[in-house]
Amino acid sequence: MSNSEQTYEPELTGLLVVDPYNDFLSEGGKLYQLARSTLEAHNVIDHMRQVLAAARAGGVQVFIAPHHRWRESDPYSHWKTMPPVQASAAQGHVFADGTWGGRFHPDFEPRSSEVVAQEHWLSSGFANTDLDLQLKKHGIRKVIVIGMRANTCIESTVRFAAELGYEVTVVKDAIGSFGAAEMDASLQFNLPEYASTIAATNEIAAKLSA
Amino acid sequence: MSNSEQTYEPELTGLLVVDPYNDFLSEGGKLYQLARSTLEAHNVIDHMRQVLAAARAGGVQVFIAPHHRWRESDPYSHWKTMPPVQASAAQGHVFADGTWGGRFHPDFEPRSSEVVAQEHWLSSGFANTDLDLQLKKHGIRKVIVIGMRANTCIESTVRFAAELGYEVTVVKDAIGSFGAAEMDASLQFNLPEYASTIAATNEIAAKLSA
Amino acid sequence: MSNSEQTYEPELTGLLVVDPYNDFLSEGGKLYQLARSTLEAHNVIDHMRQVLAAARAGGVQVFIAPHHRWRESDPYSHWKTMPPVQASAAQGHVFADGTWGGRFHPDFEPRSSEVVAQEHWLSSGFANTDLDLQLKKHGIRKVIVIGMRANTCIESTVRFAAELGYEVTVVKDAIGSFGAAEMDASLQFNLPEYASTIAATNEIAAKLSA
Amino acid sequence: MSNSEQTYEPELTGLLVVDPYNDFLSEGGKLYQLARSTLEAHNVIDHMRQVLAAARAGGVQVFIAPHHRWRESDPYSHWKTMPPVQASAAQGHVFADGTWGGRFHPDFEPRSSEVVAQEHWLSSGFANTDLDLQLKKHGIRKVIVIGMRANTCIESTVRFAAELGYEVTVVKDAIGSFGAAEMDASLQFNLPEYASTIAATNEIAAKLSA
After folding, report:
1. A83–D195: do the CB atoms touch at under 8 Å?
2. What is the least distance, in Å, from the CA of D188 to any CA of chain A?
């Protein structure tokens, strides 16, 4: 399927906004300095806004797939094992619940009709959450993915979505990462294996608003 | 395996407390009148207390598997379909978030080291939640199940646990239902197919505290 | 939703035929004597044929959800635990691979365009198999369930289907069990909680062929 | 955790051999020319042999996670969507069932006590298969991953393993890919986020045989 053939019927399509936290996307966030270069290079936040606006305008249901917020009560000390990226987030109290960093960037606050899936513990928005259920209950078969960060949560969410049977689109200039090299590697080597369409914001927004 | 051969090594065993809400277990709860006869006939709440105390005394990790709490923001009006038991809970605003009915019965409030899994939307504590992950992260392979209600959430949680590879014990006088007939049918026909052990509180408590 | 309002759009509906093995359904099968009374009382095999024929006539995709076939190479001796119903099937070499008992009843052999999901180890056609994926890949949101046996594989498959977001119909006279009491209990207490529609063959067949 | 602290208790550890097909690993296989450079550069097949031998010597249970074998009867023409990597494998009749290319490389044929999980349709050995169940039934909490190919099936299997709660080790010179760049990117950027240990064959083999 070429990009031009890709369609986004509103009743079959969902927009997945992954981890739109202040800690990632806002000046002063705990991970913002790491993300800044890719966010600025691709004008990511503005592109995320455009895709979100187009989805809303086109009647496409919006879903937020939020990372686990760090909490004082987290059970980590009882866990037998943790992958490095999780241990690091836990140690840094990233996306701390009840703090500004753990709130969504104001431009990506969900509207009342939009779905916030359960928090995912590691990287995939689908793993150990209700995201697959929510998509099915809404009749969604195609997902458009934007947010953070390209080679971890975005890529894991895309890989899981493809395994679960969804048709996946990645908006390549509406995702960011902690460095150009790792984002380029995801876009060059991995996402094209699992995403039916990888396209830029203007192309996707045009289709969604059509 | 006979009941007497069943062992509960603390490092391998978890206690699952299913849906211990005031709406089910406390006088004045929305579903208490429906549950009352089985709760009283088997002295269920006292048995739940005894099993919980024995688990804590024996160093067995406690997990709460809580039903979805009704919220004003629930997405039901956008869902394509709902099973009858879910439609009914939604309509009745059962376990309403922020209300007394949606809080845990005071005797089953978790301690800080105990795990509260994500809320399950329908009946199985495992479906679309992090319960399986939490059990694995704690190294648990055997689960002891108590709570409400025998033929819906208890039975679905037991069926899922068995499908997922856990060794399951049901404490037959620490579960309740909306009527003796449906509870008896679960205990007679279905739970024995999936639970390796079905036993009474005194037997389980003795093993846990041993 | 009342039964009369239930619709079965061919592009959204799948027929699930659960465990249609000779060992269950054919004279001489290992479990046939156990199943015989309910099969005969409700004319189950004939009803299964009618539902299957109606699904095919109506363009509804057919999926078989087959139980694990016993094999010499089964890993049971290395497993830490097995639920009773699984231990029993293993001990009896039920649905033995390569034998007549482990083949589908001739009237329920799939056509080349029909999907045979991976074998399920325990009871739910969805657990540890590709059934959910196959349904999604075909765009299915509604499932009609027939086959064996009412309170184990049928009920577990129905419970999982509902948890996974499908709209479920059970054809009450196209399922069998090992006794009237356990089948009646499933139909009276449990299936109505998870199935949106429970109806007889003539009603379902009429809708499918419409 | 540093690599030197990583332990592999035989009763808790499983070796996952991913997609050890002739089509990948043997001269004349359909994908061998694509894989050849990385296989040779890192002496991958010999390293896979060494890890497997060490696992067997050390009493570590072996699991094969095999990719879907192409079959004439595959349902692809009825599927609504397919990710690119799957469409490509389908078109190329890769790992064709009943052919030499779809058989395991002779050095990685499982012994009778070793587990062959259900075939995975896309990339993760866990998705829509019984791999998680098999690991749990054997009491496994730690997995060591070898095989093909680094940035698709290996990385997806590792990401899923981590999401599901397993402690993951990748043997970096016992995996191959279709090019150094994509393998390096996986090893540099992605696998270190999810694998607790990434080490060479000699280090892992020494620990397994210890």
Report:
1. yes
2. 9
Q: Tell me the C-alpha distance between D87 and D175, whole Å.
A: 23
Exposure on the CB side of residue C173, measured as CA atoms within 13 A: 14
Size of the A and B interface in Cβ pairs below 8 Å: 60
Tokens of B40: 């009283």
Q: Are A152 and A123 in contact (CB under 8 A)?
A: yes
List of chain A residues whose C-beta atoms are within 8 Å of the C-beta of residue D196: 81, 83-84
CB contact under 8 A, D81 and C137: yes
- Alpha carbon separation from B200 to A139, B48, B122, B146, C27 (Å, rounded): 44, 11, 27, 11, 40
Which residue from D139, D141, D164 is facing B133, i.e. has the nearest CB? D164
Contacts of A87 (CB under 8 A, 6+ apart): A76
Angle, helices D155-163 vs A155-163, to 10°: value is 90
CA distance C186 to C24: 19
| Rounded Cα gap, residues B207 and B205, in angstroms | 5
- Output the CA–CA distances (angstroms, integers) from residue C178 to A179, C40, C47, in the order listed: 62, 12, 18
Residue in chain A closest to D157 (alpha carbons) equals A159
Instruction: Decide if B45 contacts B98 (C-beta within 8 A).
Output: no
Peptide bond into B149 cis (omega under 30): yes
Question: Which residues does D109 contact at the CB level (< 8 Å), separation at least 6?
Answer: none
> Which amino acid is it at A30?
K
Q: Do A165 and C136 touch (CB under 8 A)?
A: yes
Q: Who among B133, B137, B164 is closest to D136 (CB)? A: B164
Contact criterion met (CB < 8 Å) for C165 and A141: no
Q: Which of C79, D204, A148, A129 is nearest to B127 (CA)?
A: A129
CA atoms within 13 A on the CB side of B23: 23
Whole-angstrom Cα distance, residue B12 to residue B142? 6
Neighbours of A, requiring at least 3 CB pairs below 8 Å, are B, C, D
Query: C87: helix, coil or strand?
Result: helix
Residues 6+ apart with CB under 8 A from B127: A133, B120, B121, B156, B160, C160, C163, C164
Q: Which two tokens stand for residue A102?
A: 């753990």
Sort strands B13-18 and A142-148 into parallel, antiparallel or unpaired.
unpaired
Count of beta carbons in the 10 Å neighbourhood of residue B150: 30
Residue D14 and residue D135 in contact, taking contact as beta carbons nearer than 8 Å? yes
For residue A193, what are the contacts with CB-CB under 8 A and spacing of at least 6? Answer: D83, D84, D85, D123, D151, D152
Paired residues of A143 in beta bridges: A14, A168
CA-based nearest residue in chain A for residue D81:
A167
Provide the 3-class DSSP secondary structure of residue A146. strand
Q: What is the pTM of this model?
A: 0.98
Q: What is the pLDDT of residues B151-203, one digit of tens each?
A: 999 999 999 999 999 999 999 999 999 999 999 999 999 999 999 999 999 99
What is the separation of C-alpha C84 from the centre of its chain, rounded to a whole number of angstroms?
20
Residue type, D151: N
Could you report the predicted ipTM of this complex, rounded to two decimals?
0.98
Contact A168 D193 (CB under 8 A): no
User: d(Cα A155, Cα D158) in Å, to the nearest integer?
Assistant: 13
- Contact between A118 and B131 under an 8 Å Cβ cutoff? The reply is no
Ramachandran class of A81: left when φ > 0, alpha when ψ lies in -120 to 50, beta otherwise: beta
Question: Is the predicted pLDDT of residue D200 greater than 70, yes or no?
Answer: yes
Say yes or no to pLDDT of B4 above 90.
no
Query: What number of residues does chain B have?
Result: 210
Residue of chain C minimizing CA distance to A138: C165
Residues of chain D with Cβ-Cβ distance to B133 below 8 Å are 163-165
pLDDT at D1: 64
